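Dig into this one:

. . .
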Amino acid sequence: MDASSPYVNERACQYKTNDKARALRVAFKKLFHEAVRRPFDDRSAAWARDKQEDLLRAILQFTFNHLLALEPVASSERARVLKAALTAIGDRPEDVLTVGDLCRITKASERTLHYAFTEHFGIPPAHYTKVRRLNGARNDLCREPPMKVSDAANNWGFWHLGQFAKDYEGLFEELPSDTLRRRHGFVLDSDLRF
């Protein structure tokens, strides 16, 4: 059977569809697991709205990917979008701005926003905002008077402390508690041995 066979093309399309379906199932599973772990508080409604937007964006991306293949945006437009996004992030440093929020603020598509950030910083906007918030939490841990790790994490929009510690360690190569201990030189409750 040669590569131009209709059967081969049909199989290739089937694999692509299966990959998209698998990725969508993973996105749903992640969302539902996160929803179960999420404590009910005042921020739950905003979190739920953001997750609904993320889910809708994923569905649209997987379903209509061929429609999103628009011609490239001019670099001046990406520069405008980047400047507007960075201004919004700078104006509200402790807010958790989602990609959807940044798209609305900059009046740009997700694709344009993504290109603007990857062209300038080499990372997508969601990663940029997370790194910025992690740095904010680190700065809080290094300030006087000492702050609890959970307070620093919550101040910067990190609600799952285990994930926060993992992300923090991935970026700074030390746990947040180690930063606190090293910076302020005191013994934490977790250091006590009985």
Remarks:
- The radius of gyration is 21 Å.
- The domain at 129-191 is CATH 1.10.10.60 (Arc Repressor Mutant, subunit A).
- The chain has nine helices and no strands.
